[in-house]
Amino acid sequence: MSSSSPPTSNGGGGDHEDEWVWNEIKAEARRDAESEPALASYLYSTIISHSSLTRSLSFHLGNKLCSSTLLSTLLYDLFLNTFSSDHSLLSATVADLRAARQRDPACISFAHCLLNYKGFLAIQAHRVAHRLWALNRKPIALALHSRIADVFAVDIHPAARVGKGILLDHATGVVIGETAVIGNNVSILHHVTLGGTGKVGGDRHPKIGDGVLIGAGATVLGNVKIGEGAKVGAGSLVMIDVPPWTTAVGNPARLVGGTEKPKVHDDVPGETMDHTSFIYVI
Amino acid sequence: MSSSSPPTSNGGGGDHEDEWVWNEIKAEARRDAESEPALASYLYSTIISHSSLTRSLSFHLGNKLCSSTLLSTLLYDLFLNTFSSDHSLLSATVADLRAARQRDPACISFAHCLLNYKGFLAIQAHRVAHRLWALNRKPIALALHSRIADVFAVDIHPAARVGKGILLDHATGVVIGETAVIGNNVSILHHVTLGGTGKVGGDRHPKIGDGVLIGAGATVLGNVKIGEGAKVGAGSLVMIDVPPWTTAVGNPARLVGGTEKPKVHDDVPGETMDHTSFIYVI
Amino acid sequence: MSSSSPPTSNGGGGDHEDEWVWNEIKAEARRDAESEPALASYLYSTIISHSSLTRSLSFHLGNKLCSSTLLSTLLYDLFLNTFSSDHSLLSATVADLRAARQRDPACISFAHCLLNYKGFLAIQAHRVAHRLWALNRKPIALALHSRIADVFAVDIHPAARVGKGILLDHATGVVIGETAVIGNNVSILHHVTLGGTGKVGGDRHPKIGDGVLIGAGATVLGNVKIGEGAKVGAGSLVMIDVPPWTTAVGNPARLVGGTEKPKVHDDVPGETMDHTSFIYVI
Amino acid sequence: MSSSSPPTSNGGGGDHEDEWVWNEIKAEARRDAESEPALASYLYSTIISHSSLTRSLSFHLGNKLCSSTLLSTLLYDLFLNTFSSDHSLLSATVADLRAARQRDPACISFAHCLLNYKGFLAIQAHRVAHRLWALNRKPIALALHSRIADVFAVDIHPAARVGKGILLDHATGVVIGETAVIGNNVSILHHVTLGGTGKVGGDRHPKIGDGVLIGAGATVLGNVKIGEGAKVGAGSLVMIDVPPWTTAVGNPARLVGGTEKPKVHDDVPGETMDHTSFIYVI
Amino acid sequence: MSSSSPPTSNGGGGDHEDEWVWNEIKAEARRDAESEPALASYLYSTIISHSSLTRSLSFHLGNKLCSSTLLSTLLYDLFLNTFSSDHSLLSATVADLRAARQRDPACISFAHCLLNYKGFLAIQAHRVAHRLWALNRKPIALALHSRIADVFAVDIHPAARVGKGILLDHATGVVIGETAVIGNNVSILHHVTLGGTGKVGGDRHPKIGDGVLIGAGATVLGNVKIGEGAKVGAGSLVMIDVPPWTTAVGNPARLVGGTEKPKVHDDVPGETMDHTSFIYVI
Amino acid sequence: MSSSSPPTSNGGGGDHEDEWVWNEIKAEARRDAESEPALASYLYSTIISHSSLTRSLSFHLGNKLCSSTLLSTLLYDLFLNTFSSDHSLLSATVADLRAARQRDPACISFAHCLLNYKGFLAIQAHRVAHRLWALNRKPIALALHSRIADVFAVDIHPAARVGKGILLDHATGVVIGETAVIGNNVSILHHVTLGGTGKVGGDRHPKIGDGVLIGAGATVLGNVKIGEGAKVGAGSLVMIDVPPWTTAVGNPARLVGGTEKPKVHDDVPGETMDHTSFIYVI
């Protein structure tokens, strides 16, 4: 996996890393276009013809999320303008691309993730919706939310706050509520719900710490805290706080691991994740 | 939430209420168009340009559910004709809109629900499919069923009977079988299955009473009866009858609450729902 | 159900049976077109106008899975060429059609399945993606995988090996990992995950024997073996081997049935399935 | 050509004739669908599935004239509402269909004309634009005008008044100005201009009498009068009045025929037109 | 027509005028949207939602000229980038808008011209194709040329040089060859050909002076010079030089007017054009 | 222009030449894709990804001529099947491509002609319509005719017989009637009409000999014979026979040249055409 790292990587990443990843993506797309002429048109229109990752991603999302009443040109404009107005969005995108390469063994290239991962695309579109929401442009943020839910079957309320280095693996059926907060380097499998309980309105959804891993089909309800590095087993129902570096499994969930601090799972390129067997699903 | 009620509401609703809600929707859409020019085209084409809620909804569903082999004009016609031939459909639509406003704290306006809630749209399209099924127009009912399942990831057999005041919240992954019956004022979260067991053919799916609440990811199997006002916990697997005003949780489910009769949850505008914490997910 | 069998059926099927099923499909479509003029255009374009099941299916999949950057004509070509180059694909298609007719009481005709069953369509498209993957045409296989996941919310890694006579019922949310293997005559309900655990890369997904039945929402994780004729209950979490003709239920799953050998569930046309009540969901 | 006449035709036509023509069209379309399965989908969606000629025509025009910013559903609605509000539009449509059958030897059926004649379709859409103009809905009339000019390359100002029984043969490049008036039973070939001169604004375009025939590429300029039954030669440039039953040819045009009164060319079903050889082009 | 002039107009125009015209267009579109809700969606998406004339025009052209193999997003980008890289393009656009308002009595507003005039739109797209040609990006210039010819039936070779203040009235069928040069403030009616003769390659097309007027259907062939302020009659065939302020008419053309110098026809807002009657066609 | 000839060309052409031209086209498209990334997607989808000229052309025509009611996949099938069933169609295509390269100085490559020349594309689609007509599949031939007339503004009756080596230059507005016959190596400019006169039905349209050249806007009417190598001047109106190697000009046309036999204008690669100056327009 050394090929997925820039030659002189420093922890902070930044423009240099963004540029390196974009060059990798274009090189991958060119190789694929060379080997598979039937796909070349797709690869040129989505990647190779673009001058930047921001443009490529805006183009791809505009064409993915458009409908007969929300034109691709309008959405392309919206994505391009939003990404251009806040450069932290691009660095989050790059962190998500690296997360997929490092944590998902089925991810064979950055280009593969950029084009084909519905979880990746849903998160990028969500960040734009979130920024529009923060600017009090709620109607358009909700229209975008609706298109993401229709097209990717991923339902993230535009108000939800999401960190970077996120892997939404498979992604179908993920539901994340309005007051949820997700840290950095979090991995969430398909059918995961971060839902609310009881209170109408107010702060009612989970807070997910950095480096957390939530297995397929897990349901986390209420304003509970899932601590840094914690793990939630597939199919679990969690309505309690989970301490850092602890594992919760079962319906309802009980705590089964804990206290030991593993390595943060994306700071070492090429690491082998040591997931408890019943949690992770790829 | 007083703004979501007509000035002189009577329990029965009717044409007066339908008209009031439609006027609210148009006013909301106009406010949104004013504040967000990028969305104005969408709001005019889907809402403001139409002379009635029936036309607006038929137009929106026609454009949402069309494909290259099922044209939007054909579907628009089908929806318009069906809604026009049975006025009870419109009053069910209005009851569903009010249900979303009253029960979902994330629903900020009727227009938001009408345009963006895939659960709401899936239910409206289902009612049309159901009516076509009842008229023995099964092939077209099933084609519509298929489009709803593709576009919204909501799979309701056209034969299933569904009441009014329904909230399908988030909605992705909901599956409702052929002989299921759902009462009025029911709330169903995403990933809920009302499925069959054993018998091939025949009456084999759940019967859901009025005012029932079914949490995210719950699976209810077989011709069981979920009594009026009962609640089913998120992630539960229910294969037994649940008495009225009782709560079922767990996999397999056990009964945990019961007997106390709460207020019917939508007859008091602005009520605060008192949901058991592990059930409700928004 | 005798109408769904060719007059002189032999166990092996083959070209004779393929032709019989295709003739049935066209006859069904013609009857539906006759009775429902509003659907006739759809039925002619998808079925009646085609000279073979291969062409009809390639046309329908091309129009279902296309996007603005992956044209229907390109996909149609890809499907047609792949189906033509490997005739075993067509016999698998026919076996799947028969599986739907025999095992799903809601399936009223072959044409209904061909046109409307997202699980059926996802499996057919997957087989093409799998063949492209086997030919080392990975980028286009993954692009197809992505379209299937977007359009049908069914996520089957192109490397996964899938037998014939498969019923993916309802299908929304099904996720099947890279090294999974599925035998013949398997029935899988919606929201089922055949996922990996722990190991990054390598053989890490379930192996599903012939005639297995996996209930809605079940999660099977790791390189475990689900033996021939076994059953997995709805909502179960399985991380252990399940012996042949045995039933696993619960979260985590325990074994509850076993040893008795039922009839293989599709070799007797018109059989009544004797499913344990908590497993099957239609 | 007796097959193109109702069994008991009276000169006035009316609802009886409209119904007869619509039944003919459906019968023709059914015959064509029977003989050509590849076209059946098109014939069902455009003709056979519709309950009236008004609906069929509105559907066809909506799908022909739509664009990504003017949706087919919107145009369909506009056509349907306008045709429904003024029944004289339908009788003009029927007269135009009969004109094509009687005067154009290349017209093999009413259905052929309804579906494929761009001149016929442009005239029908123009009548709707004209009515909207008359209702002072100028912006939408001009938007429609623009779509007709783009799609059919026929440019008729919405204010122009056009009679019934019109044949625009081939039609490409026809331009008809704002204050032009065209009588009944007029035949106009392709590339014909009815244009203005000199005056800015005011009544500045030709007035075409009943039964006039204008050859291909002819240009008629200014507020001149082309008398009843007159003929204009192909390629002529006419800036003078042409008396009734007279022929004008040349660039600039001179009068060459005249005074003899032929039969009005559509009151005798099946008549053989006796056109001067250098005028008519089909 | 004073309403079509900025309050403090100076001959040179420039940014101030561009801004004034854009504000007029938006005000017109808002008035039209107010009065015609059915058109509001179209007007918002094409005009009102945009922040500049450049964006509005690029959006409109992208949606007009796109095809299934040349996406609207790609074309939008191409137009936007080209207009942004050369500000003289926008001032030519504004001059063309003013030309339509001043010279075409059927033009009721700037917005009408911007949205609906195929001649205006063809010229704007041509200027972009011409710039791409000048940058030696010939293949994309020719692809654009082809789309303009398909969509608007206007065929201008990308190498042709075209001034500003151009009115292509009706525009269908206009053909302008590779080495043609057109001055400023020229009016060209539909079906006009500026074609080549004899020589293969080389400078072989007409040179049209400032303020020239060419009537409908006129054909001008060869490297001839049509002098400043000259007029060419409708239907003429011109293969000779036409001196300034002279009129050519007939097939073949002869010179009939001359020497008197009229006012340049667009420097006085609101002027009444004094066209010789047989030339002009609107 | 030697680059447009195969190294070992023999007069007859045949498969060898077809293959050579297709290889040239792919090489041109690859060069263009290399130099212009924005166009690469278009070039790959239309040319580079295809295995033969027949497939590339069928794909391109299917996408050009499709509509919402005539799907691209259906048309692609129709073109592919028809081209495959009659190999003479392909050699006519190749002859037309060579005609454009040799006779039109604005044609810079075969790929340019294949993708962008509406006259070339209209002729190829016409040949398919003609073959369908000959097979008595009239309704679909006429539907195709209608699409060609809408999309390219070229109106060729499907019954008209057209040779090979045809150049329809610019092409907009060309109208060719039902009983017209066109020989080989004919060049026809835009706005040319080959029309009928007088007789209703029967053989009533022009017969055009080999190597004829018809200038822009010329109108030829009636069952007249234009002899081999003859020329018709731009804007002429011809209603008489024109002897071989003779030129007709004027309205009405008179004969002005004659008897001298020029070289057949496409048998010498790179020839310089010696057209009488008033005829030819490019």
TrEMBL record, chains A, B, C, D, E, F:
One of its GO terms (molecular function) is serine O-acetyltransferase activity. It comes from the Eukaryota. The keyword Amino-acid biosynthesis applies. Pfam families: Hexapep, Hexapep_2, SATase_N. CDD domains: LbH_SAT (cd03354). Its EC number is 2.3.1.30. Pathway: Amino-acid biosynthesis; L-cysteine biosynthesis; L-cysteine from L-serine: step 1/2. The keyword Transferase applies. One of its GO terms (biological process) is cysteine biosynthetic process from serine. Residues 21-125 form the Serine acetyltransferase N-terminal domain. Keywords: Acyltransferase, Amino-acid biosynthesis, Transferase. GO terms for cellular component: cytoplasm. Belongs to the transferase hexapeptide repeat family. This is serine O-acetyltransferase. It comes from Deinandra increscens subsp. villosa.
